[in-house]
Amino acid sequence: MKSKWTCALLVAVLGTSVYGGNVLASAQPADSPPAPPPTTKLLAQSVVGELDIKAHTTPARWRAKIKTRGVSDAYVVDNTLVPGATTGWHSHPGPSLIFVVAGAVTNYSSDQPGCASHTYNAGDSFVDEGGDHVHTLLNPSTTKTAETIAVQILPHGAPRKINADEPTTCHIG
Description:
The protein is mostly beta strands. Helix content is 14%, strand content 40%.
């Protein structure tokens, strides 16, 4: 009977030791400091008069329509994100056409269920329609810098970027 208890104790100690060793071996190092924010360089800025653009093409039926009331501010912005950098949650009062020119960026958007993400690679582009939804861009790489060029049309005098808190429905870390 004594040998059964000794064997059970030995198995428990051995199991605890193996588990503890695995946990300690896989423990993450202390949190490293967060990546610095993106570097933003304004490449061009202009005040644009009222727009009433109605383009169309046949036979493919491609169409475009942009209409504003009053003057707008137009920007061309170069954003560089080091590995792990994020833009932080924010919105824009007007649309942005974003070109990924180097690396990759992951866009998390509050207007997607669960703030679903989409990763865009160099050569890709996407549109942020602006308005009341918020989003954040993240450079998911641990080694490569990401770069985007954004073309924005905003109401005259409006801020280009409006910082926001992470939506309660989003949990990206």
